[in-house]
Amino acid sequence: ADLKDADLRVLEELGQGNGGSVVKVEHSPTGTVMAKKIVLIDAKPSIRKQILRELQIMHSCRSPYIVSSYGAFLSEPNICICMEFMDKGSFDGIYKRIGRVSLSVVRQVAYCVLQGLRYLYDVHRIIHRDIKPSNILCNSLGEIKLCDFGVSGELINSIAHTFVGTSVYMSPERIQGAEYSVKSDVWSLGISLIEIALGRFPFSSDDTGDDDDDENDSDLDNSSDNDSDLDDLERRKRVGAEDLARTATPRDSLLSLTNNKTKRRKQRQRGSVGGAMSIIELMHQIVKEPAPRLVLPGEEEAEEFVDACLVKDPEARKTPGQLLVSPIFFWGCKVWWEVCVD
Ligand code: ATP
Ligand code: MG
């Protein structure tokens, strides 16, 4: 139960986000392989203790749709969170590696995320707050689970800049300053599903006012030139974050981004700002323009499902529980039938 750095042998680096990095480690005493998330936080000791207490909730989450936690500990100046290692990584990595994710897998992702969201909310009254492809993980058993959910309010406050990258998945009501609700997560799910199904982020400056065209382009291939698109997407997301930093309103913790890391990255990337859509433009688009859609020939049910996630009015948007009874989830029987006939 008491994890410490001395017992954890680093095997490899798994990835890096805005708020820290994740490494694959082996817990020597037990031989258990884990993913260790290292978060640098800028907080007083009392706040750190509070964060650790809050992270305990994560330990009590037991669901096949939630990445399990082995525990968290302080390793000054970091907080380390040890969690279940998911050997296929996250869906952003998956689509960047294999290209567009097939619709049957997209359905599975939708199903597991909704189940995870429902579990977090119904059992623990937790709203995830950070649904995006990099927080949806997969393993070779075919399990799909959520990680990085907002268990700790203090942690969220202490690493506010971490949530900047997330802003591109933010719902219109959140952008306009409303409180988070479980329905904001449903919006982010809709955006994430389009992203993995198309193999690219659904918003771009080229799309403005001409959305359908792009989304109908179903035979966009995933060959080499897609790579540069993806790099461009990453750049755009980050550049966007820095734009936001420049015009930040300190009132909203999401917008107070004046930390050194951001500044450094801003300097590094200043050269690539040209042409990219700024986060301000993007937010304007999210709030003012019709929501993006997933239009794939012969896939009306999937289209309707994504439309339901991306209803702009949160009052009219469905909850995870309501979405779980969508017709697209009757497919389970179909797969079983297909498997049997084969
Ligand atoms: P952000 O910091 O903006 O939230 P992120 O989600 O990509 O972005 P991290 O949460 O630090 O950043 O994760 C970095 C990467 O580590 C992820 O993209 C994912 O691929 C990998 N990763 C995270 N948790 C696990 C895990 N439990 N098992 C395997 N890989 C993981
Ligand atoms: Mg993450």
Automatic annotation (TrEMBL):
<dbReference type="GO" id="GO:0000165">
    <property type="term" value="P:MAPK cascade"/>
</dbReference>
<dbReference type="GO" id="GO:0004674">
    <property type="term" value="F:protein serine/threonine kinase activity"/>
</dbReference>
<keyword id="KW-0067">ATP-binding</keyword>
<keyword id="KW-0418">Kinase</keyword>
<protein>
    <recommendedName>
        <fullName>Protein kinase domain-containing protein</fullName>
    </recommendedName>
</protein>
<dbReference type="GO" id="GO:0005524">
    <property type="term" value="F:ATP binding"/>
</dbReference>
<feature type="binding site">
    <location>
        <position position="37"/>
    </location>
    <ligand>
        <name>ATP</name>
    </ligand>
</feature>
<keyword id="KW-0723">Serine/threonine-protein kinase</keyword>
<keyword id="KW-0808">Transferase</keyword>
<keyword id="KW-0547">Nucleotide-binding</keyword>
<feature type="domain" description="Protein kinase">
    <location>
        <begin position="8"/>
        <end position="329"/>
    </location>
</feature>
<feature type="region of interest" description="Disordered">
    <location>
        <begin position="205"/>
        <end position="236"/>
    </location>
</feature>
<feature type="compositionally biased region" description="Acidic residues">
    <location>
        <begin position="207"/>
        <end position="232"/>
    </location>
</feature>
<dbReference type="GO" id="GO:0004712">
    <property type="term" value="F:protein serine/threonine/tyrosine kinase activity"/>
</dbReference>
<comment type="similarity">
    <text>Belongs to the protein kinase superfamily. STE Ser/Thr protein kinase family. MAP kinase kinase subfamily.</text>
</comment>
